[in-house]
Specification:
The structure holds two protein chains of two kinds.
Chain A: E1 5-10, H1 11-21, E2 26-33, E3 36-42, E4 67-74, E5 79-81, E6 88-93, H2 95-109, H3 115-122, E7 124-129, E8 155-159, E9 163-168, H4 171-180, H5 188-205, H6 215-221, H7 226-234, H8 240-244, E10 251-257, E11 263-270, H9 291-310, H10 320-324, E12 358-367, E13 372-379, E14 392-397, E15 401-406, E16 416-422, H11 426-430, E17 439-446, H12 452-458, E18 462-468, H13 472-484, E19 491-498, H14 507-514, E20 520-526, E21 536-537, E22 554-559, H15 562-574, E23 582-585, E24 601-602, E25 605-606, H16 607-610, E26 613-615, H17 616-619
Parallel strand pairs in A: 2-6, 6-7, 7-8, 18-19, 18-22, 19-20, 20-21, 22-23
Antiparallel strand pairs in A: 1-9, 2-3, 4-5, 4-11, 8-9, 10-11, 12-13, 12-17, 13-16, 14-15, 14-17, 23-26, 24-25
Chain B: E1 5-10, H1 16-22, H2 26-31, E2 36-39, E3 53-57, H3 65-75, E4 78-82, H4 83-88, H5 100-107, E5 132-134, H6 141-152, H7 164-170, H8 195-198, H9 215-224, H10 229-248
Parallel strand pairs in B: 1-2, 1-3, 3-4, 4-5
Classes of the chains: A alpha/beta, B alpha/beta.
The complex binds flavin-adenine dinucleotide (FAD), iron/sulfur cluster (5 copies) and FE2/S2 (inorganic) cluster.
């Protein structure tokens, strides 16, 4: 960390300096365009507006634009990751928005770094202008303590009359100030006076909320409060609040093919958890169908889920959503306090681009059922997938899009792996036309599966696999792994239920398993029987009492269609199995697969990162889990 | 790839959508790399009896059109309703709250019977099954190309289900409610890039309602901003007479 430097320059000196910087940098600042005041690029520093009125959009758009291309590809399979970092100076950003940028810096650099955001950030110099009084009646930065950021900028200017007092926070800021700003004699007294006046003006508006620190707990306790319903009633699900928010960062990923059909782009566009389609998954099921749940989710992200992660209110009180919401829905109810030390973040782009897929060749296809096909693929670059059972990949067809697909083969399968895919939409329908020898693209493996710790825990226990329909596919990876050494377990019971006998998958394998005997058993059921079906007919829950198990030494592993979980878990509980001995694999809508886009979120959990495999006791209290 | 054959048909409409498409020029030429246009009255004279994709402009307002529509449905494997008239009835359906005789009188005061029309102007989907639609009055040509391209690729048409406000905000417009005007943006399907607001107007709903619009809240808001109920209904009915009826039942 650099030590904070204080300097001073005349205002003219600052603007002259910016004018000179125009040769090396693009300059974005507050300016007038078509009658609106907004942040935009200027080619003449005299066009920079000095009086601040809160803008419709925050300056996050320079690092995370409304829409941007992340990949370019040709149809013969050449894929290039796109980042287009330009050197920019972002001038005149206000404290609340700087706090917003700090939050986005953290969000986009944790675990997998986002190359597009970070490369733009790395190439930017952020020069803030401090607020001396509260900008308007909708702003509430002082409630969430966002008006005095200590990071998220390089230089902060404080208006002390004819001069700007400068707080220089980073090496980048120091170099910029040395190169472009003349410095006059630094006047400590003037800065002190500014700070006192600012403090007084903000204190007059009100201090931070008393319970700022406890907001996450307060939110947990009040998840059924009446206010959610009454606010939701008026909500238009119009998404405006999300579009304008400096700290919202959900996005959608879209494939766009040029009319030539030979080249295309994959782009990302702002998305919004307030929109109805945001959490819709295949089959039309929507995990956040009710407006109430969407309002709850949005506000919880600010003061609960993400607040816990960032250690500060993720709402920075800029007031934009308050101004934007026609239905007068406002987050102004809550309190928080800034976390002590902000983590120093490395704004470096990792070497391998997170969004760059790798090419695989299809080595085997089998038609399983009318809508389900089996695929075996092989990495062209010879690498092996190296997954744990329960993980998934992002499979893509250039020009169509990406889909999350579970890995069905057990680990250590050389440079090949297997998937079963049900045709439900764009990508999965297109896949039907693919033949052996053709190429697909893969990213991953992603998510948290049955890791070594869980696998160790399973040893010596009676394992109860409960698979409904296509749920057999992701479980198969673990099932086949354990079947290699059944002696490691007390018993392996596989319960498999399908709609009809012809919907069963991996029928050869099922027969093979049925013949294994000893401590391996398989029980099957179908909802609707067809000719020659000799096994059980009925719901999968009816199979559970047919297995003789000791609830104190049993682990149940469950995967199936959304409706199945509730009933299976109820039945298991009746047999006295505790929820810490149940594991579930959950399917959610996913886009990025790496904890960025927000599509898969259940309350404060990103399914794509912490799941899809969960110990049920860890999530049973999450409202949105099942 | 075998290029699918595309035919255009027009019913009760101003033909503005077809004109917009003819203005496409370069894109239209490129589009011809992936489709064959076999019937397009505005641009060519050949008539074809076979086609794969039928693009229908205009609303269904005369009984005698039913036969022609059914024929199109039988011939084409994909039927696309293009433009507000075909998609939601459009401006034509403004008259649906009046009697047929009244409407005929307005058109030909001296000889009302000359104006041959049904009681109502309805969306094409009131007559035949429609597989996809391209909203707007007139259609956005970029979206036209996108929908046709997606359908040829075997993808879903890819229309947004979110409202105009999303795009309006992305364009950083000042909300017209702050300027003392009212706007249907919160309940109308995006995809036009909020073109009317971005150019100094307001959204009058030519692209039809989003799925699950919160009509009650929209009315409350317009009321709060000073419109009385009649004006609110008028503004909502301009394009969406038929859609609003569907909401009432
Ligand atoms: C962890 C995980 C593992 C999965 N494993 C498999 C698998 O092994 N085999 C398999 O066939 N499918 C699997 N899925 C579901 C699969 O990802 C979706 O069916 C697929 O993304 C749909 O893409 P599409 O382009 O064909 O459909 P689209 O045209 O994009 O959409 C069609 C329908 O699918 C919904 N949808 C879109 N994206 C997703 C998504 N990521 N997840 C769920 N629904 C979505 C849409 O809301 C719409 O209703 C898995 C999903 C997850 C999250
Ligand atoms: S919300 Fe606070 S920090 Fe942001 S511009 Fe207004 S006064 Fe300044
Ligand atoms: S801006 Fe208001 S009405 Fe629109 S989605 Fe947000 S909370 Fe709902
Ligand atoms: S939630 Fe509203 S007030 Fe808070 S940061 Fe986002 S836009 Fe600003
Ligand atoms: S002007 Fe209309 S579309 Fe734009 S934000 Fe306001 S209500 Fe929505
Ligand atoms: S803004 Fe509204 S009226 Fe204008 S084109 Fe879009 S949907 Fe139609
Ligand atoms: S955060 Fe993008 S899929 Fe989970």
């Amino acid at each position: 960390m650099t030590t904070v430097l204080n300097k001073q320059s005349t205002k003219d000196g600052v603007f002259d300096g910016l004018g000179r910087a125009l040769g090396e940098y693009k300059i974005a600042a507050l300016t007038k365009k078509d009658g609106k005041v907004l942040f935009d690029y200027v080619t003449d520093v005299r066009k920079i507006e000095q009086d601040y009125t809160p803008t419709v959009l925050s300056p996050k758009k320079f690092f995370f634009p409304q829409e941007e291309v992340i990949l370019e590809y040709t149809f013969d399979g050449k894929v290039t990751a796109k980042t287009n970092p330009e050197k920019i100076v972002l001038f005149g950003v206000r404290p609340c928005d700087i706090t917003g940028i700090k939050i986005l810096d953290e969000a986009f650099s944790e675990s997998h770094g986002d190359p597009n955001y970070l490369s733009k950030r790395e190439n930017s110099v952020i020069i803030g202008i401090d607020c001396k009084s509260v900008c308007d009646e909708d702003a509430f930065c002082y409630r969430v303590n966002s008006q005095n950021p200590e990071s998220g900028f390089d230089i902060m200017l404080h208006d002390i009359g004819n001069n700007y007092s400068m707080t220089i926070m980073t090496d980048k800021g120091r170099d910029f100030a040395e190169n472009y700003f003349d410095s006059s004699l630094f006047d400590y007294a003037a800065l002190a006076k500014f700070n006192i006046e600012k403090k007084e003006a903000f204190a007059k508006a009100g201090g931070p909320w008393e319970d700022l620190d406890n907001l996450p707990e307060i939110f947990e306790e009040n998840s059924n409060h009446k206010i959610w319903e009454t606010e939701a009633e008026r909500c238009l699900s119009c998404g405006s609040c999300i579009m304008v928010c400096p700290t919202c960062y959900c996005f959608d990923v879209i494939d766009e093919l040029a009319l030539s059909m030979k080249v295309g782009d994959r782009l990302r566009r702002w998305d919004a958890c307030m929109l109805r389609s945001f959490a819709e998954v295949a089959g039309g099921e929507n995990f956040r169908e009710e407006v109430e749940n969407r309002v709850k989710h949005r506000i919880n992200r600010k003061f609960n889920f993400l607040m816990k992660k960032h250690g500060q209110s993720v709402c920075v009180g800029c007031g934009r959503c308050v101004r934007a919401c026609l239905a007068d829905i406002s987050p102004v109810t809550i309190v928080e306090e800034l976390i002590k030390t902000s983590k120093t973040l490395k704004l470096e782009v990792k070497n391998n681009n997170l969004y760059l897929p790798e090419k695989v060749t299809i080595t085997r296809i089998e038609q399983f059922t009318e809508n389900e096909k089996f695929f075996e693929v092989e990495f062209d670059n010879g690498r092996s997938l190296g997954h744990e059972p329960g993980q998934f990949v992002q499979l893509s067809i250039l020009g169509i899009g990406e889909a999350a697909i579970s890995i069905s083969s057990p680990p250590s399968y050389g440079n090949r792996f297997e998937m079963v895919i049900r045709a439900v939409g764009d990508v999965t329908n297109k896949l039907k036309t693919f033949k052996t020898g053709e190429n697909l693209f893969i990213r991953g493996p992603f998510g948290h599966g049955f890791d070594e710790k869980i696998q160790k825990e399973m040893e010596g226990k009676h394992i109860l696999y409960i698979a409904g329909g296509i749920g057999y596919v992701p479980l198969r990876s673990l099932i086949n792994l354990t079947l290699k050494h059944p002696e490691k377990y007390e018993k392996l019971s596989i319960l498999y239920g399908c709609k009809t006998p012809s919907a069963r998958m991996f029928t050869d394998e099922l027969e093979y398993i049925a013949e294994m005997r000893n401590n391996v058993e398989i029980l099957e059921t179908v909802d609707i029987s067809e000719d020659k079906w000799l096994q059980h007919c009925g719901l999968i829950t009816e199979l559970i009492p047919m297995v003789d198990f000791n609830p104190d030494n049993t682990i149940a592993i469950i995967c199936g269609p959304p409706v199945m979980y509730k009933y299976v878990i109820q039945t298991l509980k009746k047999q006295r199995l505790t929820t810490n001995n149940m594991f579930v694999s959950l399917e959610r809508r996913m886009k990025c697969g790496v904890g960025k886009c927000g599509h898969c979120q259940i309350d404060d959990i990103y399914v794509c990162q912490e799941g899809p495999v969960f110990r049920f006791s860890d999530i049973e209290n999450k409202e949105e889990a099942l | 790839m075998n290029k699918p054959k595309v035919a255009f048909f027009d019913f009760t409409s101003c033909e503005g959508c077809q004109l917009s498409i003819l203005n496409l020029e370069t894109e239209l030429l490129q589009l011809l790399d992936i489709i064959d246009i076999v019937e397009f009255r505005e641009a060519m004279s050949e008539k074809s009896s076979t086609y794969d994709i039928a693009i229908i402009e205009g609303s269904f307002s005369r009984d005698k059109d039913l036969k022609r529509l059914k024929k199109i449905r039988e011939t084409a494997s994909v039927v696309i309703a293009m433009g507000a008239c075909a998609h939601i009835g459009g401006i034509n359906s403004l008259r649906n709250n009046q009697t047929r005789e009244g409407v005929q009188k307005i058109v030909y005061p001296d000889n009302p019977a000359l104006y041959e029309t049904n009681k109502k102007a309805l969306p094409v989907s009131a007559a035949i099954k429609v597989d996809a639609f391209i909203p707007g009055c007139p259609v956005d040509v970029g979206e036209f190309v996108k929908v046709v391209k997606n359908l040829v690729l075997g993808k879903a048409p890819g229309l947004p289900t979110y409202p105009v406000c999303v795009e309006c905000k992305m364009n950083e417009n000042t909300c017209v409610y702050e300027l003392g005007k009212t706007c249907l943006g919160p309940v109308v399907r995006a995809g036009c890039n909020a073109i009317c607001i971005s150019n100094g107007g307001v959204c009058i709903g030519c692209r039809g309602l989003i799925p699950n619009p919160n009509i009650n809240s929209q009315k409350d808001i317009m009321e709060k901003y000073g419109l009385d109920m009649n004006l609110i209904m008028d503004s909502m009915n301009l394009f969406m007479t038929e859609e609003n009826k569907a909401k009432e039942v």
